[in-house]
Amino acid sequence: MAISHIDHIGIAVSSLEKVKPFYEEGLGIRVEEVEELPQKHLKVAFIPVGDTRIELLEPTSEASTVHQFIQKRGEGIHHIAFHVDDIEASIAQLKEMGYRLLSEVPEEGAGGTKIVFLHPKSGFGVLIELVEGEGH
Ligand code: CO
Description:
Helix content: 10-25%
Oligomer: single chain
Bound molecules: cobalt (II) ion
Distance between the termini: 23 Å
Radius of gyration: 15 Å
């Protein structure tokens, strides 16, 4: 598997509106784009930081897994996403090695990327996402 860089770090927030001033005014980094992912019950904001990005995830309904995450663990770091060049090959390799994935085939991520999540048990407590494509 060829991982070139960390694509983004996903952070669960209750309200993008409340969090935005901290990143924009406090840290001085700009929210680039906000995207709605209705099928995932999420509103997503990307903040570019060099080669990587911060992805702020706000649940838009209680059906969102991010809503459940915030209920259980509070706001904070939700996942780390590695950029891969061939997601199908990465999935096949991980399955072959006995690691658990949350889906068998890539899903559509923000900005038309292809994504897959590893089961947090396989990531030793860290939810790992793999991303193919540039997104934004
Ligand atoms: Co992500």
